[in-house]
């Protein structure tokens, strides 16, 4: 392997993952010759319109502000996700999972956790998450996540965007910084005598060599899986969904600041607001419903049964590779793995993969010294997200057909998730135990608590336990007033975006 900075890096694939990699590489290593090859015939997957706050970290890393990219990509802000219709327990039919705000830990979470503790003992207290988070309030009031300068607490936020336009924006920017774009089909891959990647062969007979290769070829997985033979570990036993149907719908005057995830008969539907349309999709398991029926159900859900709107059907391969960095190749994006998009984490994983790889590669003087450690870290991120997504299917409380019953009865869950579910049911100090046993994985205890409380995973109430209702009421009012007054520092979402567009 190399022991000096690579002279040439070749990225194969020009989807979001490829162009994110190109931008990060060129911004940190401008002296390296970086090329990206993409195929016009094959194209990009063209879905993936919601992010976590990691997309902000990515843009911060390449020094691009919201104002510079959002208007080009019809982007909107995202405070979190509402989960509708996942639980059929009265009072728990819907909950909001917010991104973190600095006001959470000190001011509002202690109330939430106290009430969870009391509710787990059977006291009749309000332990539904929706009243305890500033970002939930902002979302219900259609307020964007950027506070006035005088408000000293930040809130984390993600985005919604047109994935095609985001790819174009990133491609243009990377090329301006010096990345060389090649449009061609890769038809073969050559290895050298050490089994490292040597070059890719294009359909016109030419070859492109490099010292290091980034595999961003999507589900085609040309380099790491196909050429280097790294194995793929399927999550199909844990997560049943393997298909999606996608279609747009007209945007409304009120522009939500959230993704909506609504449980349907055999999966769930996303609704993502962009400035010019809603992006919608139904993620389902082909073992339980066929593509035509899924499309009809999505149309029904959106009120588009009679509308002349085209649908796109997609298959998803859910799981991850055993190693993301092997020999002189790093896989990023769908080529390294994919967890169904319920928590919109793919871009976050791509960002973490590239940023962390660059750090380890450089630290090891551009050798594979830290590859094993890196692979372990990235695997832990994938598995942590998988566990959190699986928990939605274990905890949601729906039992109305085979799909939901089989998910609830599924025993293919990790030891970590088993422990978390056990602690929720049995430990009076859920949060403390999560930290003590280092069980958070990719999510903080507040996110786990939000989901489990949001679905109403509580024991029956015990009528004999007395509750001071007046004291509860006073506490709830004081908390609401605190959150409402914090909210005065935030602007209407649509106005915020209009301002940005100039
Ligand atoms: C239903 C669904 C919903 C999703 N929702 C979200 C979401 O809300 N949030 C999120 O973060 N992510 C989401 N994702 C994931 C997201 O779409 C991807 O992570 C993201 O688009 C990156 O894809 P990619 O760049 O890895 O692959 P692709 O976009 O598929 O790009 C692959 C590239 O490789 C090139 N290529 C392939 N073969 C060859 C060849 N032989 N020669 C030359 N070039 C080649 C293609 O031309 C293309 O440029 C979703 C995915 C699915 C399936």
From TrEMBL:
Catalytic residue positions: 78
Keywords: FAD, Flavoprotein, Nucleotide-binding
Residues binding L-tryptophan: 343
Binding site for FAD: 14-17, 186, 334, 347
Pfam families: Trp_halogenase
Key word Flavoprotein present: yes
Residues where 7-chloro-L-tryptophan binds: 78
Domain of life: Bacteria
Entries under PANTHER family matching the protein: FAD-BINDING PROTEIN (PTHR43747), FLAVIN-DEPENDENT TRYPTOPHAN HALOGENASE (PTHR43747:SF4)
Name of the featured protein: Tryptophan halogenase
Species this protein is from: Bowmanella pacifica
């Amino acid at each position: 392997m190399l022991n000096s900075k690579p002279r040439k890096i070749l990225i194969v694939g020009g989807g979001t993952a490829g162009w994110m990699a190109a931008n990060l590489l060129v911004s940190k290593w401008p002296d390296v010759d970086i090329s990206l090859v993409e195929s016009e015939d094959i194209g990009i997957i063209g879905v993936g319109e919601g992010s976590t706050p990691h997309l902000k970290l990515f843009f911060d890393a390449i020094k691009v502000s919201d104002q510079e990219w959002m208007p080009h990509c019809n982007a909107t802000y995202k405070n979190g996700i509402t989960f509708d219709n996942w639980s059929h327990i009265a009072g728990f039919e819907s909950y909001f999972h917010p991104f973190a705000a600095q006001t959470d830990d000190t001011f509002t979470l202690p109330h939430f956790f106290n009430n969870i503790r009391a509710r787990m003992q059977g006291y009749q207290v309000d332990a539904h998450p929706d009243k305890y988070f500033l970002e939930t309030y902002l979302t219900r009031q259609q307020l964007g996540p950027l506070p006035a300068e005088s408000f000293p607490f930040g809130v984390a936020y993600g985005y919604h965007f047109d994935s095609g336009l985001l790819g174009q924006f990133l491609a243009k920017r990377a090329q301006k910084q010096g990345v060389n774009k090649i449009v061609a089909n890769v038809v073969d891959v050559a290895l050298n005598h050490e089994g490292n990647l040597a070059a890719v062969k294009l359909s016109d007979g030419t070859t492109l060599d490099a010292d290091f290769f980034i595999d961003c070829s999507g589900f085609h997985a040309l380099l790491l899986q196909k050429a280097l033979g790294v194995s793929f570990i399927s999550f199909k036993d844990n997560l049943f969904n393997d298909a999606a149907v996608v279609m747009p719908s007209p945007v409304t005057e009120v522009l939500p600041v959230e993704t909506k995830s609504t449980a349907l008969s055999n999966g769930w539907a996303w609704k993502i607001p962009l400035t010019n349309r809603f992006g919608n999709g139904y993620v389902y398991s082909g073992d339980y419903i066929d593509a035509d029926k899924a499309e009809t159900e999505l149309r029904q859900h959106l009120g588009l049964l009679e509308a002349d709107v085209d649908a796109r059907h997609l298959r998803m391969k859910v799981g991850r590779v055993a190693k993301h960095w092997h020999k002189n190749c790093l896989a990023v994006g769908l080529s390294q793995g994919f967890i169904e998009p319920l928590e919109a984490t793919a871009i976050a994983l791509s960002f973490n993969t590239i940023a962390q790889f660059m750090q380890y590669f450089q630290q090891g003087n551009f050798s594979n010294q830290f590859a094993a450690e890196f692979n372990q870290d990235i695997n832990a991120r994938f598995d942590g997200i998988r566990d959190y997504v699986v928990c939605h299917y274990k905890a949601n409380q729906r039992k109305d057909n085979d799909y939901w019953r089989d998910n609830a009865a599924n025993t293919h869950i990790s030891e970590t998730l088993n422990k978390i579910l056990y602690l929720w049911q049995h430990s009076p100090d859920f949060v403390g135990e999560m930290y003590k046993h280092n069980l958070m994985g990719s999510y903080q205890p507040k996110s786990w608590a939000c989901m489990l409380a949001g679905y109403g995973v509580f024991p029956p109430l015990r009528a004999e336990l007395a509750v001071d209702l007046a004291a509860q009421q006073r506490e709830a009012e004081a908390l609401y007033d605190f959150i409402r007054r914090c909210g005065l520092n935030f602007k209407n979402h649509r106005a915020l975006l209009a301002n940005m567009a100039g």
